[in-house]
């Protein structure tokens, strides 16, 4: 590891508890930590970066994703479909996933995230095609280590197929014992519970309409025995709500509570259709929610009550969700979408630029229980990104760094991204992989999956 000095930064947005900002200060990175923030720092380092023209921000945290869906983006046939029909169309395509497909799609999704200021990402991988299941999720952890992103990999699963009253076909469903055995293997192989960990594991059965009660009960028990977190989709659509009431006799959150899936070691993706009483229950138990505004808008699922969640004390983070119902892994664009969506729907005072940046930094930190990320403070992780204020797309609007980040810009690609003290994006380009080669290979795999009969 090395020492990097960011010298005389135009403005540092720390996102600490006091929302401190520093103008003209320097920041010293020593190995994987922020060693010092001060007006002047004089020390021998391996690299000095002149920050005079740059705004500096803490790395963004993506709390829900499906990397493999980068292979099935922009498919016209499902661009007007709601969730259940969307899934039914895509499950057969995803049944063609291979180890190579998972590896390259992960590089694409993680690369997009890093280029848009995201330094930590989760991913829920839940499609294990028959004949391709052995060590399939390992390709995500391999790709994460190579590209240099901080990664919380969620070993997902589906155990209820169409023949058992679920939504997915048999070709992508596994037996409960098979799921649990591999979940334990993944935890023991990849989970690092130490501070500043680069890789952690969560267990993540997919959703109420694709998993059995037996799997839910055994999965949460296994997760808690290893002290890892648990994650699933919940309250995403009214179709899901009707399914739970008709098939299970309970509302989605009632059902999850009945099988032990609530608490500060659990977070849900979406959370659109919670009632006010249910939001109180989430707040009381410390259960988190990953807000996915672009995805929710794309398939017309509804709008999460994020301002009410904040008022009640629910932990909320930001997420891009899967590439096939977002068509991008762009965290900066997600900031802008969240900002505009809630102002339009909940009123002009419901969402500020500071709140939406907090959602993508402090919120993700709290949901994932990794306190050393999500802000720029001495002793915390050296995860951050910089944007050059001299770029054309910021011209005439550099008076406030947070407003500039959320409201302006035309590419959303940052200039420099640092994760765990290492530069992974320089001058807007990934330095750890060959972007052109990865794009070419991914397009080839995508064509084989989408166009094969």
TrEMBL record:
The keyword Zinc applies. Gene3D superfamilies: Metal-dependent hydrolases, Urease, subunit C, domain 1. The keyword Secreted does not apply. Residues 55-424 form the Amidohydrolase-related domain. Keywords: Hydrolase, Metal-binding, Zinc. Transmembrane segments: none annotated. GO terms for molecular function: deaminase activity; hydrolase activity, acting on carbon-nitrogen (but not peptide) bonds, in cyclic amidines; metal ion binding. InterPro entries: Amidohydro-rel, Metal-dep_hydrolase_composite, Metal_Hydrolase, MTA/SAH_deaminase. This is S-adenosylhomocysteine deaminase. It comes from Vecturithrix granuli.
